[in-house]
Every structure is written in structure tokens, then in C-alpha cells.
Amino acid sequence: MSRTLIWLRSDLRLADNPLFQFSTPPEALLCVYVLDEVWLTPMPGLEAPRIGPARLQFLWQSLIELRGELLKRGSDLLVRIDDPVEAVVALVDEHEIDEVRVRADAGWEERQATARMAERLDGAVSLSRHDSGTLFDEASLPMAIADLPGSFSAFRRKVERDWSVPGAVPAPVTLPSWPAGAPRGFPPLHKVCGRAAAWAPDRRGNFAFAGGEVPGWARVDHYLWENGDVARYKQTRNGLSGAYFSTRFSPWLAQGCLSARQVHDGVRAWEAEHGANDSSYWILFELLWRDYFHWAAWQEGASLFGRRELPAPDDAVRAWCEGHTGVPFVDAAMRELATTGWLSNRARQNAASYLIRDLGGDWRLGAAWFEHCLIDYDVASNWGNWRYLAGVGRSSQPRALDVHDQAERYDPEGAYAALWEASRPAPRPEVS
Ligand SMILES: Cc1cc2nc3c(=O)[nH]c(=O)nc-3n(C[C@H](O)[C@H](O)[C@H](O)COP(=O)(O)OP(=O)(O)OC[C@H]3O[C@@H](n4cnc5c(N)ncnc54)[C@H](O)[C@@H]3O)c2cc1C
């Protein structure tokens, strides 16, 4: 009997997921997600786990949603908290699996884990890696990863010359049955982390993200079709507050509840009906940035994280994390980040630039703090954007911003800074 194990990571969806596409389906299928136990332990220096309560809650919601979709198709989901390689290898042995499928993740640790898995399986069980979630596959990039240009603009010019993004593939209608006797289900979130189970975003953020494919699609429909915000994106994208100034697709893209191709298809369908404009193009332009950082992470490997050991944060860096620098524009951003798990791109850039330029802090501490806080944390986008702003590696020009100028330009009335003043009461949310 042929048995396949799908090892899920940041690809928690059924539609447009190559792991669930079979030319000849196996007779039995085991779908597994293993939360790396290391992510729950405090990072040295910052005393915060790599996965904070906001993202952990979103992750659990995404897993619950995915399990529901799998059950509808005759399959199921097993979730464990463990060393992912050890847990998957044990399942392979116990349930006589003959194929393991996994996403070709760009993150160095994920790649190391995949390599360790290949060693442990030692050719006796086949291990297949699949590109997934990005606009382009490695094979359809107009250059080898090793030749990825040092600048985004050069990358964009090359991919736009022959822009052909494959269409998203629908979800399978049915799936092979669960192997007899194999475990299923997962621990309730309150047993994994009480803070994550109880976590709720500060209502000043005006938005509550819910994990999973269906809530992700609801946001896409809302943004593209119901509100038509896509028509104004280029003018609004530098906004700081509110539910509609940018797409807010990032958490679903980061956990893989949505793929970039699905968003691409949605934007193209909107353009077919309403006509393309600068704003619809600009959403695709941002998705290209995402692809660029993904492929850059492949190229950079372990050096994405910098080479030296992470220093302990000093008092100034701690104050930055807590939103007590004394600069209202920066403090507002850091408070919003810590209490909602999300931040606009403009505020991320300013918060990061202030740490690097004004405090002289180590950019990697900032990246690690963002990793803890962000619901949409994505290894390539987070560490890539931090490196880019710090002027490390592929881009040697630091992109320092003057946060006072930026506050005058983007928050001229000081409304954003005032909203996140520590004592201000929270208004009712616009969207939930
Ligand atoms: C210091 C710093 C850290 C960041 N960390 C992350 C991260 O961990 N995860 C993450 O998804 N994004 C990260 N970004 C990029 C960007 O800020 C967010 O993707 C964006 O703010 C998410 O909001 P949105 O979905 O409304 O984006 P929109 O403006 O609506 O853009 C649409 C999509 O394009 C992609 N995108 C947009 N800008 C970027 C960018 N600069 N780099 C990569 N992808 C982009 C995202 O997938 C986003 O959902 C970071 C940026 C900075 C400056």
C-alpha cells in the first residue's frame, strides 16, 4: 500500500498547494504539522519566545481551519510540538510511509531541517521538495538563484520583461484516506500557551486577523471586490491607521493560508473587470518584493541572520521594544506592534531606522523582536527588510530615515502618535 506523509510548514492551505496535487494519489495520506518546540523557548537576551502569542493564536486558528477542510475531503491533520525532524521520522517509521512531501522553504533553519530529514530517510523513503507560495518557481525565474541581482530594481526589470505567473490551482475535491491507526488531532491552544489562547489585539489597531484559508479569502474579497480599495492602493499605502489603507494580506501569505498566485489571479480578475491602474499594478509590485526577498534568502543562506553572536539588548534597545524612546512617532509604532502583532510598512521602516540610525542598536535585535511580535512574520521578508534598511549584505547603502521628518510628512497632525499614547482609551473596532 502506498503511503504519503505531507509535512506542512508555512503552507497551511489546500488550494494552490502542490503538496496536495498528485498525478497518482497514494492509497493513504498523513498530514502533519510540527511546531518546533524551540520557537516556544525564550530567545537569549530578549527573554521572549520566537513565536509570540499573537502569531501562535493565528497559527492555531489556521491549523483548525485547515483540519476542517481536510476532514471534509476524507483526510485529517496531526499537530505535534516537538523537534520537527524527529517527530516526522518517527511517524514515517511507525506508519510505513514511502514518500514525504515538504515545501522548499527559503529559511536557513527550515532548509537545514529538510537536509537533516533527507539524511535520516537515507533514500529508503523518497523526500520531495516543492516550490510553493511565491509568484515564481525556481524553474520559472529568469535567472539562477546564484545570479539573483543585488538590487530589487534589476530583479523586477528581469521578471517583468516576460511576466508570466502561472495561475493558481484549485483545491483537491477528495483526498486519500488516513492511514489506519495513525494519530490525529492536536493539543488545545490553552495547554500550549495560555497567553496565546487569551490574546486579543488592542482595539486601537482597528483590525482583528483570523487565521485560515477562508478568513484569508474573505479579506481578499473584501479588499478587491466589496470595498474596491485596490483602486486606491497606490495613494493610501503609506497610511498608518485603519483597516483599508493597505491589503493586510500579509499574515495569510506568511502562514501560507493564501498564496501569492491566488492574490495575483484576484488582482488580474479585478483588472479585467475594472481596468488596470497604478494601484492594482502596485500590489503586484509589492508581491514581487516578497518574491525577491524569498529568493534572496535562498541565495544568502545562514548569512541572512548576520554572522556574529546576538548581543544582549542595552537599556535603549529595551526602551525601544517597550515603546518608551521618548519619540512619540516611534513609540506609537512599537506599542502598536506589541499589542496588535501588526504594523504598517511605513511604521516598520521608521521603527527599524530609529533603532539602527538613532540608537546605534544592532539590527538583528530589532529583527528578532519583530520576529517575536509579528503575526505576519516571514523569515525572508523580515530578516531581508531589516538587512536592507541596515545596509548589510546585498545592499550596502543603509536606508536611514529621519523619523522627525517622517512624522511631519506622514503624521502631520500627530493623530497616530496620539492614538497610541499609553493612557488613551481604545475606540470600537471597524472590522472584526
Ligand atoms: C523592518 C521590516 C520588517 C518586515 N517584516 C515583514 C515580515 O516579517 N513579514 C512580511 O510579510 N512582511 C514584512 N515586511 C514588509 C511589509 O512591511 C509588510 O509585508 C506589509 O506591511 C504588510 O502589510 P500588507 O499586507 O497590508 O501589505 P501591502 O502593502 O498591502 O502589500 C501586499 C503584500 O506584498 C508583500 N509586501 C509588501 N511590502 C513588502 C516588503 N517590503 N517586503 C516583502 N514583502 C512585501 C506582503 O506580502 C504584503 O502582504 C517588513 C518590512 C520592514 C520594513
From TrEMBL:
<keyword id="KW-0157">Chromophore</keyword>
<dbReference type="InterPro" id="IPR014133">
    <property type="entry name" value="Cry_DASH"/>
</dbReference>
<dbReference type="InterPro" id="IPR006050">
    <property type="entry name" value="DNA_photolyase_N"/>
</dbReference>
<dbReference type="Pfam" id="PF03441">
    <property type="entry name" value="FAD_binding_7"/>
</dbReference>
<dbReference type="InterPro" id="IPR036155">
    <property type="entry name" value="Crypto/Photolyase_N_sf"/>
</dbReference>
<feature type="binding site">
    <location>
        <position position="233"/>
    </location>
    <ligand>
        <name>FAD</name>
    </ligand>
</feature>
<dbReference type="GO" id="GO:0003677">
    <property type="term" value="F:DNA binding"/>
</dbReference>
<comment type="function">
    <text>May have a photoreceptor function.</text>
</comment>
<dbReference type="GO" id="GO:0071949">
    <property type="term" value="F:FAD binding"/>
</dbReference>
<dbReference type="InterPro" id="IPR014729">
    <property type="entry name" value="Rossmann-like_a/b/a_fold"/>
</dbReference>
<keyword id="KW-0285">Flavoprotein</keyword>
<dbReference type="InterPro" id="IPR002081">
    <property type="entry name" value="Cryptochrome/DNA_photolyase_1"/>
</dbReference>
<keyword id="KW-0456">Lyase</keyword>
<dbReference type="InterPro" id="IPR036134">
    <property type="entry name" value="Crypto/Photolyase_FAD-like_sf"/>
</dbReference>
<keyword id="KW-0274">FAD</keyword>
<dbReference type="InterPro" id="IPR005101">
    <property type="entry name" value="Cryptochr/Photolyase_FAD-bd"/>
</dbReference>
<feature type="binding site">
    <location>
        <begin position="376"/>
        <end position="378"/>
    </location>
    <ligand>
        <name>FAD</name>
    </ligand>
</feature>
<dbReference type="GO" id="GO:0003913">
    <property type="term" value="F:DNA photolyase activity"/>
</dbReference>
<dbReference type="GO" id="GO:0000719">
    <property type="term" value="P:photoreactive repair"/>
</dbReference>
<dbReference type="Pfam" id="PF00875">
    <property type="entry name" value="DNA_photolyase"/>
</dbReference>
<feature type="binding site">
    <location>
        <begin position="246"/>
        <end position="250"/>
    </location>
    <ligand>
        <name>FAD</name>
    </ligand>
</feature>
<feature type="domain" description="Photolyase/cryptochrome alpha/beta">
    <location>
        <begin position="2"/>
        <end position="135"/>
    </location>
</feature>
<comment type="similarity">
    <text>Belongs to the DNA photolyase class-1 family.</text>
</comment>
<protein>
    <recommendedName>
        <fullName>Cryptochrome DASH</fullName>
    </recommendedName>
</protein>
